[in-house]
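Aim 2 progress update. The chain analyzed this quarter is reproduced below.
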Amino acid sequence: MDERLFSEDASHRADETWQIMPIGPMDLELGGHLPAVEIAYETWGTLSAAGDNAVLVCHALSGDSHPVGWWSALVGPGKAIDTDRYFVIGSNVLGGCRGSTGPGSLLSSAARPGGQSPLRLGSAFPKITVGDMVTAQQRLLAALGIERLWLACGGSMGGMQALEWARRDACDRAWITASAPAHNAMQIAFNEVARQAIFADPAWQGGDYEVGAGPDRGLAVARMAGHLSYLSEAAFEAKFGRRRQQDAPELFQVESYLRYQGKKFTTRFDAGSLVALTEAIDRYECVSLAGSRTRFLVTSFSSDWLYPPHQSRALAQMAREAGCPVEDHDIDLPYGHDAFLLDDQIQAGLVRDWLARP
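Predicted structure tokens:
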């Protein structure tokens, strides 16, 4: 079993290198309004004179604008998403908590009643959609001088963003891995369990908790529940089995692992963002790709029970029905949903070959 499956989360970095792009006010798809939006982003490589080598790497639920870290298996110099060849952009989604405007963004000092300490937007942050995330990305790229993407790609929630780019016919190619055109009941249920764990923490305060005083216990449990769905039975069994902690024999190793992952998550993620983002992906539903001219690569993993391969096959069929060129592959690996982050061999080879085709 690949030990990277249980390594430190690459998206948690002490040196944040993102830049901030103000993209102005936004009217949102569900009727909300944000008077000012900022998007955190990073870039690698050089944009061609024709502007035809731009690649947007969209992150999953807990990711950020640094794909050369959290997707190092695929993104970097000489890798499948080659930063020496393409102009690669990573951005933190609208609603995130890694530099972009979200529930954890701070109110200006003028908006703080009675000179209070910094206040989060909290419950004042409106409900968002995957479409809003992509609209914000489109504004970011317009500010960078990019009219159309050569490639939009991502896994899990990132795959939904890439699919939305393709639905809007705003990219030449879309690679979607370990994702779906819409959540099924089980996927919504997992997200609801995570949200309810947060809501049950007294520190939630309806989303209006102070900076540094959030619902860490609820957020930790939410992350633990997430980890149950990210890995396969084989991955859990190979790493832990029924073995006990040597320094705390009253604990199974898997209990200690989940507690550690939950606690670590609270140091880098905002509970309000987890609620906002899971609600957004639960709402997303792409029912047609009519009008899109995008070329698709769709990949899935045999052991992924969170985003099972049949959902990827349905997505590929939807693209075929729209007349889009499609290539789809189900990869046989035992790592579960996280295989899309780890596989630097089979998946990487498929991507490299597909990108090389005219």
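Strands lie at 19-27, 33-44, 54-58, 75-76, 81-82, 87-91, 149-155, 171-177, 295-301, 326-331. DSSP finds eleven helices and ten strands in the chain. These observations will guide the mutagenesis experiments scheduled for the next reporting period.
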